[in-house]
Specification:
globular, 2 domains, Rossmann fold, 8 helices, about 25% strand
Length: about 240
Amino acid sequence: MARTPSPYSIELKDVTKSFPLQTSSLMRRLRPDRFTALANVSFTVGHGESVAILGRNGAGKSTLLNLISGVVPPTSGKLRTEGHLTALLELGTGFHPDLTGRENVTLNASLFGLSRAQTTERYASIVEFSELEEFIGDPLRTYSSGMWLRLAFAIAVHSDPDILLIDEILAVGDDRFQKKCFDRMAEFRQQGKTILCASHVHSIVASLCDRAIWLEQGRVVRDGPLDAVCSEYEHSLQSAEAPR
């Protein structure tokens, strides 16, 4: 019997993620031996939804995206995704500095799930998007960090994802190239891709998302329309920074 497709691209139910702490026997008596990064997080993201993940540093945003991308498993709870997922998290992971840009395109594209035929078909478009045509035959160790990120981003956005995870990585290159990246993200949204975006920059989430989930100390504080949740979140930041 065929499985009934889920109405959701992403589903989390009571998801908790904790990490062991390296502590001495004395410290173990004074504090827990595990750190809980996410605690009983539950939400769903429908196909084609664009959702912002808000929260201070340490709130659990990156841990959440790493769980959804499959980089790390949950400690408890249930998590599932439906569709081809591309995570713009640690761009350039899997690159080899001694290989050329051309060789790294083939290598990294396979990590994003592209077959050799698909990589060959999209190769020219990847290089054109990265704007690194004259350097593509050079070893990656000769690239600047900006060039490295541009090539990684170009490969990722050509993987034709159903679900796109974004974690504070759109500061790629100069202002003109950043606009090019934003325009590609907007195209994904118009095509009905599911987008989950963690960012501190309001202009980024406002341009990409229509819903927000606010995390605080690993728990969901609020889940709702973008403007309302952003307003409450920013008010909480201002209150925390106000002199007492």
